């Protein structure tokens, strides 16, 4: 996993979110920053500016919270090579694909299931709480939030694939085709 860069009040929010993917969730959960139009921020706004207009929050405290949340997120992530090894085991993890139906139908990890509300209800109703469940998307942008949601519902072994299927295809299984979406 890449080393994190220094973070201080002068960092722009776009860079914060790029370096710390869970920062959006962490800022909203603790400070209600970024959840609605009145508390949203622009990618070019600095962290210090966001803190100032949100009741003068102490920048150092907010940075500490972002870093702590990032460390917790890193524990949720599973590396592509680690997942590849787990898929070879006698008890492979349950794979949940968060991408669109078209993406899933075109390219998917073997044995993965397309996410749906019905599947989620099935998991809540019948899946063992200690089963390893790995969620993935295209580049890993949304999977952390989904894994955190499952953990919040007592699925303590829920994990998010770092870098999504794109990183898996690049690092663990080059037979899986890589692709780029037009709107990325």
What report would you give on this structure?
It is built from nine helices and five strands. It folds into two domains: 13-75, no CATH class; 79-171, Rhodanese-like domain (Oxidized Rhodanese, domain 1, 3-Layer(aba) Sandwich). The chain has helices at residues 13-19, 23-31, 47-52, 59-76, 80-87, 101-106, 117-126, 143-152, 164-171, and strands at 77-78, 94-97, 113-114, 133-136, 158-161. 45% of the residues lie in helices and 9% in strands. Strand 2 (94-97), helix 6 (101-106) and strand 3 form a beta-alpha-beta unit. The chain is of the alpha/beta class. It starts with 12 loop residues before the first helix and ends in a 13-residue tail after the last helix. A five-stranded parallel β-sheet has the order 1-5-4-2-3. The model has no long low-confidence stretch (mean pLDDT 92). It is globular.
CATH architectural type of the largest domain: 3-Layer(aba) Sandwich
Instruction: Report the structural category.
Output: alpha/beta
Describe the main β-sheet briefly.
Answer: 5 strands, parallel
The proportion of residues forming helix, as a percent range, comes to 40-55%
The CATH topology of the largest domain comes to Oxidized Rhodanese, domain 1
The tally of helices reads 9
- Overall strand count: 5
- Gyration radius, rounded: 18 Å
